[in-house]
Design goal:
InterPro entries: D-2-hydroxyacid_DH, D-isomer_2_OHA_DH_cat_dom, D-isomer_DH_NAD-bd, NAD(P)-bd_dom_sf
Number of helices: 13
Order of helices and strands: EHEHEHEHEHHHEHEEEHEHEHEHEH
Protein name: D-2-hydroxyacid dehydrogenase
Organism: Flavobacterium shii
Strand content: 15-25%
Strand order of the largest sheet: 7-6-10-11-12-13
Distance between the termini: 10 Å
Pfam families: 2-Hacid_dh, 2-Hacid_dh_C
Structural class: alpha/beta
Family: Belongs to the D-isomer specific 2-hydroxyacid dehydrogenase family.
Largest sheet: 6 strands, parallel
């Protein structure tokens, strides 16, 4: 059987699939050519990340398709229920990238509270001529320790983020309409651990209470954070989105950044991805990454291996 890993797959995933008797194709096929390629090459399994979309048209055009796999958590680029109605298995890897995404959240948080993103832009330009000026500009940093982190969506990635926040000495609050409470176990290098319980609260109370807010939700029909939500937040709040573009109203966010209502934002995903708005890209108060939450070697190894195991189990 043949597997098309159209958005790539780790070496460990390829080896596991080949050991299971599968041929793995890593050719990058353009979106409009996916259906033709699948049919012409008798592909049984298509694996994607966030770049390739598997919609109804491809599903209808590829009657031989047995599995659609998503390397990661969110499956908004796949018509999941329609595929299942056609007898196609749809799989993903919800647990594999949690720690990597959570670490990126804190990369953006540290960037924001110590102005690292802007300092790294300006030091190469002015570091030798305006050192004291830059030192003064970036002198009013903030510690994360002792502050309140509001986590919107306390699923696997939200929980991994909570563990890191607790390790830093932050207070953690959460809002999740599907998870009323969750036990968070923070494990240490020597085998010891501590466990604390986080009880979900309303979004409104989280917005009012949090010093920093991080989003861990799937794609939505509307904004979770818009002008109304920004108004009730603390002055100087920091906001991070490493979840999905379109859950924050970027026009309202820029306005809030310009007014000082929001002190900084960290964005890994964007409303108009893969062409983010220039007002976002050029803003000095936004820490930016190009949708790389799960893009670590460790996460990709886990994703590839987990996809391979699921495919072998389903088709062997």
């Amino acid at each position: 059987m043949k597997v098309l890993a159209n958005d790539g797959i780790s070496k460990s995933g390829i080896l596991a699939l080949e050991k299971g008797g599968f041929e793995v194709i890593t050719t990058k096929v353009a979106q409009e050519q996916v259906a033709n390629f699948v049919n012409e090459n008798n592909v049984d399994v298509v694996l994607v990340r966030s770049a390739t979309k598997i919609r109804k048209d491809i599903i209808d055009a590829c009657p031989g398709l047995k599995i659609i796999g998503r390397g990661g958590v969110g499956m908004d680029n796949i018509d999941v229920e329609y595929a299942k109605s056609k007898g196609i298995h749809v799989i993903n890897t919800p647990a594999s990238s949690s720690e990597s995404v959570a670490e990126l959240v804190f990369g953006h948080l540290f960037n924001g509270v110590r102005f690292l993103h802007d300092s790294n832009r300006n030091m190469p330009l002015e570091g030798d001529t305006n050192f004291d000026g830059l030192k003064k500009a970036y002198a009013n940093g903030t510690e994360l320790r002792g502050k309140t982190l509001g986590i919107v969506g306390i699923g696997r990635i939200g929980q991994a983020t909570a563990k890191m926040a607790l390790g830093l000495g932050m207070k953690v609050i959460a809002a999740d309409s599907f998870i009323p409470k969750v036990d968070i176990k923070v494990e240490f290098f020597d085998g010891q651990s501590i466990t604390t319980t986080i009880v979900s609260q309303s979004l409104e109370s989280l917005f009012k209470e949090a010093d920093f807010i991080t989003l861990h939700v799937p794609a939505q029909d509307g904004y979770i954070i818009g002008e109304k939500e920004l108004e009730i937040m603390k002055d100087g709040v920091g906001i991070v989105n490493c979840a999905r573009g379109g859950v924050i109203d970027e026009v309202a966010l820029v306005k809030a950044l310009d007014s000082g209502k929001v002190s900084f934002a960290g964005l890994d995903v964007f409303e108009s991805e893969p062409k983010p708005e220039m007002a976002i890209l050029m803003h000095t108060k936004i820490s930016l990454t190009p949708h790389i939450g799960a893009a670590t070697g460790e996460a990709q190894d886990r994703i590839g291996t987990e996809l391979a195991q699921q495919i072998i189990t389903l088709l062997s």
